[in-house]
């Protein structure tokens, strides 16, 4: 089946706005052709949310507490609530967050899934057989049980400061022996766990909010990507990560929304916050929220940008809404002001 879309296309890996047509056949972008004349829509690649905890969907209005009291295992607020939550309630709440991601233009996400094998199975139940979104699930051991590894893409841990380091090393080793991905939080509360995290040679790191110059250099030299979660860090008082310094150092940086208990999964909100707090180029901001996330998750050959041969994972936004009417720069307006209610179609 062939489909043709016309609009201002945020095209290629450099996200150049081009007025034109996209032809789609069997879900694949077949052609991209320029045209002349007015266009009323923006056609952009869908978001890749590179770090979530959507099990937290069971608690969306927590009290303002220090970070450790909110999320530190095993006794942080979220872990206590997850233990008390039934499988059915957990699945139901995650289904809602998955639907919200799709509705707000996200085509893929990576989730740090607590609860061992049961937690991984709950997320898979929430996804179903044809959810319309791609998921990369990183599980977490319960009482040393790592049987979850046979059912997901790898392991995602909290800080090395939260567990005995020898146990963490064993988890990392067993994960890699299975040929799976290993990722870990680092530098969120302070910089004390960054060196230990780097010694584990993770596939990627989360946060690095408190990374200093030496930390950034070490991460860059190790060629380890980083996912930043600015709204989450701001809300917990962790500060804002040095995103520009990471990028200047040559680190692949992607963006995520983190815990649903703290923030919605709406990547428009994450993108706008990133743009207005870090204030670097809009094209680079959009790249963090799309192509860089796809690269980090290993799906950039099919997602993250609009190019012939890639899957058609697109969001179509109107230029005629009250919010978008009168825009002059489609990419900057997309990054700094667009909202989910400006979306008129998702492919």
Describe the structure.
The protein is of the alpha/beta class. The protein has two domains: 2-46 and 304-346, Urease, subunit C, domain 1, CATH 2.30.40; 47-297, Metal-dependent hydrolases (TIM Barrel, Alpha-Beta Barrel). The chain has 13 helices and 15 strands. The strands form two sheets. It has a nine-stranded parallel β-sheet, with helices on both faces. Strand 6, helix 4 and strand 7 form a beta-alpha-beta unit.
What would the keywords be for this entry?
347 residues; alpha/beta; globular; 9-stranded parallel β-sheet
Rg, rounded, reads 20 Å
Integer tally of domains: 2
Helix content: 25-40%
Spatial strand arrangement across the major sheet:
12-11-10-9-8-7-6-5-13
Give the overall form. Answer: globular
Bin the strand percentage.
15-25%
CATH architecture of the largest domain: Alpha-Beta Barrel
Please report the number of helical segments: 13
Q: Which CATH class of the largest domain? A: Alpha Beta
Low-confidence runs (pLDDT<50, min 5 residues)?
none
Order of helices and strands: EEEEEHHHEHEEHEHEHEHHEEHHHEHE
How does the helix and strand content classify structurally?
alpha/beta
State the distance separating the first and last CA atoms.
13 Å
The major pleated sheet works out as: 9 strands, parallel
In short:
The protein has 347 residues and is α/β, with parallel strands linked by helices. Helices cover 33% and strands 24% of the residues.
């Amino acid at each position: 089946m062939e489909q043709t879309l016309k609009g201002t296309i945020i095209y290629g890996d450099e996200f150049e706005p081009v007025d034109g047509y996209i032809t789609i056949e069997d879900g694949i972008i077949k052609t991209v052709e320029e045209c002349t004349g007015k266009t009323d829509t923006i056609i952009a690649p869908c978001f890749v949310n590179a770090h979530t905890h959507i099990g937290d969907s069971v608690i969306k209005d927590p009290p303002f507490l220090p970070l450790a009291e909110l999320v530190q295992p095993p006794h942080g607020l979220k872990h206590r609530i997850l233990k008390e939550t039934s499988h059915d309630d957990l699945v139901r709440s995650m289904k809602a967050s998955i639907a919200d991601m799709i509705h707000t233009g996200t085509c893929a996400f990576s989730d740090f899934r607590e609860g061992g094998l049961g937690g991984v199975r709950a997320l898979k139940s929430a996804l179903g057989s044809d959810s319309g979104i791609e998921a990369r699930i990183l599980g977490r051991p319960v009482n040393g049980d790592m049987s979850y590894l046979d059912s997901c893409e790898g392991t995602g841990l909290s800080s090395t400061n939260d567990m005995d380091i020898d146990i963490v090393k064993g988890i990392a080793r067993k994960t890699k022996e299975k040929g799976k991905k290993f990722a870990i939080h680092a530098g969120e509360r302070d910089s004390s766990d960054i060196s230990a995290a780097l010694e584990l040679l993770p596939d990627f790191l989360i946060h690095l909010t408190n990374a200093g110059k030496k930390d950034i250099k070490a991460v860059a030299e190790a060629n380890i990507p980083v996912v930043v979660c600015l709204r989450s860090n701001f809300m917990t008082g962790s500060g804002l990560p040095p995103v520009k310094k990471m990028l200047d150092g040559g680190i692949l940086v992607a963006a995520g929304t983190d815990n649903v208990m703290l923030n919605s999964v709406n990547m428009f909100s994450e993108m706008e916050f990133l743009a207005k707090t870090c204030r670097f180029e809009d094209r680079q901001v959009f790249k963090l929220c799309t192509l860089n996330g796809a690269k980090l998750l290993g799906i950039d050959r099919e997602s993250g940008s609009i190019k012939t041969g890639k899957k058609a994972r697109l969001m179509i936004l109107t230029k005629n809404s009250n919010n978008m009417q009168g825009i002059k720069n489609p990419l900057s307006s997309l990054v700094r002001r667009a909202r989910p209610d400006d979306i008129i179609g998702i492919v």
